[in-house]
Design brief:
Structural class: alpha/beta
Helix content: 25-40%
Bound molecules: 1,4-dihydronicotinamide adenine dinucleotide
Radius of gyration: 22 Å
Length: about 325
Amino acid sequence: MKIVNLDGFTTNPGDLSWENINQLGEYTVYDRTNKEQIIERAKGAEVLVINKTVIDRNLLDALSPELKLIALQSTGYNVVDCAYAKSLGITVSNIPSYSTDAVAQLVFAFILQITNKVSLHSEAVRNGEWCSCPDFCFWKSPLTELSGKTIGIIGFGAIGRKVAEISEAFGIKVLAYSPRPKEKGSLKTIEFVSLDELLSSSDIITCHCPLTADTEKMINKENISKMKKSAVFINTSRGPVVDEQALADALNKGLIAAAGLDVLETEPAKENNPLLKAKNCYITPHIAWAAQETRQRLLNILEDNIRAYINGKPQNVVN
Ligand code: NAI
């Protein structure tokens, strides 16, 4: 059985082992694949492993009927036309919940960067500003306490729930917006509210919904205008959930206070993306999932997904 990985590098840049997948079939890994190379590399594969390579209808037609499983190396599955794949008898599997803790951790890295400005102060000390300071301490921007603030979580799945748990440990009150009813579990302060109420009442707003037709450009000019002027907006879900020009305008005009983004509409970032130079905008290059422990967990689930397909009982099927 031919197994082809078109996007191997980001999952395993060399610090993990492909050995277990090697044992499952004739496995070829490409670090990265451009659009023109897809058919030549993937033709004849029964299992296609991808991360961000877009597999549209034309490609599905071209790779059918040999292709039987598209095994994603990600939670999000918007890069594949899943419904059309299903109509061709191609199963699509994803990697659910492997990065829940890591993504929630990055949400707080952004929040703490914005409230405490660790890098700004550390740089100031390194530049000698503490040595020349007349007082025992100084700060270069207002500092904010998290306790007593309100966080609004859009999309209350695995990551949203983890962010809620950590928030409560900080003494932050939790609001959540979910199109489907959700259990409160052990959370003490959580209240499920409308999107409008969440946007207008939260000090921090964080997106943890999938990218769908409903969520695309959900954070647009109109919805940003409902946020507090002091609001901090965080997005670690998918870039297109945000209207990037509208967010950049809001930051530059001081309509909201700051943003922390791990994802952009186009990745890698385009030089003319208005958010790259927007005021108080902190951007990381899609790293929430990238801790070594997290990628190892991803690899283990990927192996299990391929093995489950071989055993006739595919798992983590999303179509
Ligand atoms: P999940 O499937 O457990 O939770 C998503 C939640 O969003 C579900 O509860 C669903 O009901 C809700 N939802 C669906 N449509 C919605 C809408 N219109 N409005 C509000 N909520 C809606 O997924 P999980 O594991 O929590 O991941 C969330 C997203 O985070 C993924 O879809 C993925 O795009 C992104 N992600 C980003 C990573 C990164 O490296 N930056 C890593 C892993 C996931």
